[in-house]
């Protein structure tokens, strides 16, 4: 059966043919439907050696924390030091993540070279003295040398954290989940399996209802480890849904939200550029399910929907790239909510002065999550991308408005 005929048949018979419904909700018993094949069989990865580097000049560096990426550290002279950054494997998307700690036995100004292997500089350095509060390095201080960079830093015995973005690791995630559970006790926490290296894969259910009374919206994030701005957008979006007001009260009477806040915990904690511990881009594995993270999420979502006699109507996947953009499916017009995407994005535009959404629609091609939501569930699928350098206050503002407008559009569509 061709992809077009299969999709058409399942869309028409979704509510009438129980067999077709089972086929759409079972990730393991259907033909491969994405036209652009991607090999997602496990590949070897290079693990960085976790250590503290001590130089004769009294300057030290460390990668002994979750989220770190530092492959080597050496002194060029008394004031210049080189950090080597390598990916987990190749070929790989150019997202050269770095994160390390620095300190000096005596106060001094140093010049730091970042030498990228198989990549070039992308992320503006962020600095912190506690790993929680971060500031941008003045971009005027950065000297570009081909794909590498050099910039000055003032060091002392106090530890200075240097990273491509703010850190948000599995430790931060556990703290955030505990906080939303405290604020919203009815939130149901769960795990949907373990990662390649055995880390828990967390999920949470908001506004869970009785069987047959709800439709499911899926929010997911962090398939790609360096994409912290997408993670921040996800957090703000969810936090708006959990506020108590007439809009959210009405919304949660009909809709249920299922969270998958960190799809790639191994990659995040290991400081990977892109891949999981199996050396694969998880957002190309939504067809073959070769990696445990995608396979277990698909299985959990299928079983959750069936158990609750509910249907998945939407999947929003939060990512980061060079600029804010919404990647959408041309096929959304044939989804369960055919007008949602255009109406929602227009409402966001109307709510933010002088804002013009950057929208990039495409046909179902590679096996990415937004296409998977449509192919598997006839649901709206959108990749919600935030720019690497998008101001953090705007990330919060836009994400809160996006959550509000999603609720309003869905409620108005009843």
TrEMBL record:
<feature type="domain" description="Peptidase M14">
    <location>
        <begin position="166"/>
        <end position="413"/>
    </location>
</feature>
<dbReference type="GO" id="GO:0008270">
    <property type="term" value="F:zinc ion binding"/>
</dbReference>
<comment type="similarity">
    <text>Belongs to the peptidase M14 family.</text>
</comment>
<feature type="active site" description="Proton donor/acceptor">
    <location>
        <position position="385"/>
    </location>
</feature>
<dbReference type="Pfam" id="PF00246">
    <property type="entry name" value="Peptidase_M14"/>
</dbReference>
<dbReference type="GO" id="GO:0004181">
    <property type="term" value="F:metallocarboxypeptidase activity"/>
</dbReference>
<dbReference type="GO" id="GO:0006508">
    <property type="term" value="P:proteolysis"/>
</dbReference>
<dbReference type="InterPro" id="IPR000834">
    <property type="entry name" value="Peptidase_M14"/>
</dbReference>
<dbReference type="InterPro" id="IPR050821">
    <property type="entry name" value="Cytosolic_carboxypeptidase"/>
</dbReference>
<protein>
    <submittedName>
        <fullName>Peptidase M14</fullName>
    </submittedName>
</protein>
């Amino acid at each position: 059966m061709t992809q077009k005929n299969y999709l058409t048949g399942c869309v028409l018979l979704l509510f009438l043919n129980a067999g077709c419904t089972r086929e759409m909700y079972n990730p393991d018993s259907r033909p491969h439907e994405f036209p652009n094949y991607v090999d997602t069989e496990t590949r070897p990865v290079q693990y960085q050696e976790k250590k503290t580097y001590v130089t004769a000049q009294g300057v030290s560096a460390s990668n002994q924390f979750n989220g770190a990426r530092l492959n080597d550290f050496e002194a060029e002279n008394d004031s210049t030091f080189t950090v080597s950054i390598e990916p987990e494997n190749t070929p790989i998307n150019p997202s050269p993540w770095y994160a390390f700690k620095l300190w000096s036995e005596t106060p001094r100004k140093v010049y730091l070279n970042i030498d990228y292997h198989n990549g070039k500089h992308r992320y503006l350095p962020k600095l912190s003295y506690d790993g929680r509060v971060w500031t941008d390095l003045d971009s005027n201080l950065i000297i570009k040398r081909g794909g590498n960079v050099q910039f000055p830093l003032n060091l002392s015995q106090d530890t200075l954290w240097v990273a491509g973005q703010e850190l948000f690791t599995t430790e931060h995630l556990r703290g955030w989940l505990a906080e939303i559970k405290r604020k919203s006790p009815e939130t149901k926490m769960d795990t949907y399996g373990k990662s390649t290296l055995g880390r828990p894969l967390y999920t949470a259910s908001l506004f869970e209802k009785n069987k047959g009374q709800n439709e499911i919206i899926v929010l997911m994030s962090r398939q790609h480890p360096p994409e912290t701005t997408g993670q921040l957008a996800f957090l703000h979006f969810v936090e708006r849904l959990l506020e108590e007001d007439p809009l959210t009260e009405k919304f949660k009477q009909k809709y249920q939200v299922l969270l998958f806040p960190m799809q790639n915990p191994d990659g995040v904690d290991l400081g990977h550029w892109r891949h999981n511990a199996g050396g694969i881009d998880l957002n190309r594995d939504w067809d073959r399910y070769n990696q445990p993270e995608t396979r277990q999420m698909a299985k959990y979502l299928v079983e959750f929907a069936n158990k609750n006699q509910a249907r998945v109507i939407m999947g929003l996947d939060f990512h980061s790239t060079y600029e804010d953009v919404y990647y959408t499916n041309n096929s959304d017009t044939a989804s369960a909510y055919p007008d949602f995407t255009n109406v929602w994005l227009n409402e966001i535009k109307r709510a933010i002065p002088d804002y013009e959404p950057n929208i990039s629609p495409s046909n179902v091609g590679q096996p990415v999550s937004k296409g998977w939501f449509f192919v598997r569930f006839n649901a709206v699928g959108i990749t919600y991308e935030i720019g690497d350098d998008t101001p953090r206050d705007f990330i919060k503002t836009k994400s809160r408005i996006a959550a509000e407008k999603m609720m309003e559009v869905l409620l108005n569509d009843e």
